[in-house]
Amino acid sequence: MSTTDAPPVRAGEGNRPPNRLFKNLTAKIAAIPMVLTAMVIFVGCTVWTVVHSFTNSRLLPKLDFVGLAQYDRLWGTRRWLISIENLAVYGICSLIFTLVIGFTLAALLDRKVRFEGVFRTIYLYPFALSFIVTGLVWQWILNPDFGVQNIVRKLGWESFEFDPLYNPDIVIYGILIAGLWQGTGLIMVIMLAGLRGIDEDIWKACRVDGIPIWKTYVVVIIPMMRPVFITALVLITSGIVKVYDLVVAQTSGGPGIASEVPAKYVYDTMFEGQNLAQGFAASTMMLLTVVIILIPWAYLEFGGKKHG
Amino acid sequence: MADASMTVPATGLADGPRGPKPRRAFSRGNIFLYGTLGLVAIYYMIPLWVMVMTSLKGMPEIRMGNIFAPPLEITFEPWVKAWSEACTGVNCDGLSRGFWNSVQILIPSVVLSIAVASVNGYALSNWKFKGSEVFFTILILGAFIPYQVMIYPIVIILREIGIMSSLAGLVLVHTIFGMPILTLLFRNYFASVPEELFKAARVDGAGFWGIYFRIMLPMALPIFVVAMILQVTGIWNDFLFGVIYTKPEIYPMTVQLNNIVNSVQGVKEYNVNMAATLLTGLVPLTIYFVSGKLFVRGIAAGAVKG
Description:
Oligomer: heterodimer
Radius of gyration of chain A: 26 Å
CATH class of chain A: Mainly Alpha
CATH architecture of chain A: Orthogonal Bundle
CATH superfamily of the largest domain in chain B: MetI-like
Radius of gyration of chain B: 24 Å
Distance between the termini of chain A: 42 Å
Strand content of chain B: under 5%
CATH topology of the largest domain in chain B: MetI-like fold
Largest sheet of chain A: none
CATH topology of chain A: MetI-like fold
Number of strands of chain B: 0
Helix content of chain B: over 70%
Strand content of chain A: under 5%
Number of domains of chain A: 1
Shape of chain A: flat
Helix content of chain A: 55-70%
Structural class of chain A: mainly alpha
CATH superfamily of chain A: MetI-like
CATH architecture of the largest domain in chain B: Orthogonal Bundle
């Protein structure tokens, strides 16, 4: 094999200088983008934001520390409290429904169904779309003057009311409908992969023992799929915290501020309200939420096993 | 959490395939099974159906009719209007501007992010150095940090380098945030390549780049395709970074779409809006329907941790 591109490698590799820093030098140089991303962006920027959340930066960031004042203000702001409540409702519903629907669809598809590929393709296609597209389509379908409400009324049920996007009390469920439509396919695929990983012999053994199919799922299969469920859980929750585009497209936070979410609060305070530190404090709260979810997972995943 | 997942799915499955003994063909269980799957499939198809149907109708028909009904008179005018005339408030040259902006963002972002991540993944699996695993762990954990935490400091960084509000800045941002998942993807793939192959090449005198370009790259073509699918759909669908790191003239398609549809001025033209929405969704949808299994492999790679 010719060695046209070997010389730079040889310099570090072939001669094996005693200094350990130069061992593997090319690999280290090649990994610079990764190191920079990890240290400057993921660690550096995060620390920077957390530190600046304790200041009273407004239009420009400055290190004028005011302790926890921003957090005090944050938790006294009605818009933030509504955002958190929305996120909680959206999050809990989305988590339960995505897991139930995702698993049910996967279990049904796993019953040696014909045209499985067609069904799977249909269930997953919304996942390929942008949240903006999803939000706008559902905004149109849920439009009370033209969409579902109008059609049911035309069928004769004159007093039928279904206008989630214009009713502050239920607007978050209107967003949930769109979010579920887009997100369940992914969980179905993951669950299906998990179900396929289960040994055929286990099914046979359960059949021999006369355990009904539904009971086999509940007692045997689901406990066996624990890692898959945990992965799904982490994927869903980290997606929930980030929810932003969907709300912007579907309701822009309205009616009023009824469908605001934390990610939107951060964006609006930072780039439109010119209240930087308030945005930093809000984003730090988002980070804290993720950390609280992530630590038990990381502990379960890596704590007990060989990594620990 | 185990409790929730144990009890909840049971309700959905209890009335699943529970008929007598699963007979072939038209047993009650089978009818139930296919019935459920079919109904769910119809539900999932509805938005796409509504988008297409609305975009082919004229406004008078929309005001009269039913959004689910097929058009009485097919018109392609909304598509033309969405593509070349729709207004965003700033200008009225339609979505075409956003489309070309997105293409200009997409191509360098995809190429750069995949190039960087594949080399990273290769270094991490075959040329481990002291600390490489630590950086990799930080990188993967970083994927879980909400973007909102990092967006402002990145604005400052881009401003300092002088590429804020430019295509280059957005490309850099996409490269950075694509790195965790792509690096994981490539690292796992390269780790599965037999080590003998790597050692043999070393004995033959090939170095870091030699092995990468002559052995790993040709072998990893399928995974490059997976990475490409992942990045093209991801970057095309991005909204947040587009809004923050560019300016109105170079807004990507998703941002422009949102501005067109949610603009408060003028009469709402729902058919044009749906045509615009469909146009924006067309690129990722095409990739999805063409790539099939590879798309699934891409998203599964994100789900299965290394």
